[in-house]
């Protein structure tokens, strides 16, 4: 099962890389970044990396395009979540444990949004939950745009700086590194929450 998943993963990476040399590559990058924020679990980095390798002088422009697409998709996902919960509330009795979970998410939404924006945590799931739990829209947008931009610009900077030398490292280690950093952020955040709540 794991081998099949890896083959599927590699196949999509090859397909995305093939788009990098097409004239409409920037539009595809925007579209893939947008869809990734709504429902596609495959990272747009698969297209950003080969595009930046082909045109290093445009690497940061591509990061900007990916950031815009991701922000647009995050907005769509947010409003889908907001519509779903408001529609459900009119016709269904929502269990208290779900309401408590949403309150918890809203209270610590910054942690979830930063983690999802900067790492490989499913971004679309977090943006959807933000709408469901009615996180402040401006607050939501600022965190999403900033941390997705940091992620994409970091990738573009590495490619601009090292070119093909860093491509292999990115493909092998980047997501693991981001996950470790995210877990560290979550641990520090949880410790901070527990400290201030018991102080």
How would you describe what is shown here?
The protein has 199 residues and is mainly alpha-helical. The protein has one domain. Helix content is 83%, strand content 0%. The protein is built from 9 helices and no strands. The longest helix has 35 residues, at 164-198. The N and C termini lie far apart (47 Å).
- Rg over C-alpha atoms, rounded to the nearest angstrom: 18 Å
Unreliable spans: none
Helix percent band: over 70%
Secondary-structure-based class equals mainly alpha
Task: Please outline the major beta sheet.
Answer: none
How many helices in DSSP terms?
9
Question: Which helices and strands, and how do they pair?
Answer:
Elements: H1 2-19, H2 25-36, H3 45-54, H4 59-91, H5 96-107, H6 109-118, H7 123-132, H8 137-162, H9 164-198
Give descriptors for this structure.
single chain, 199 residues, mainly alpha
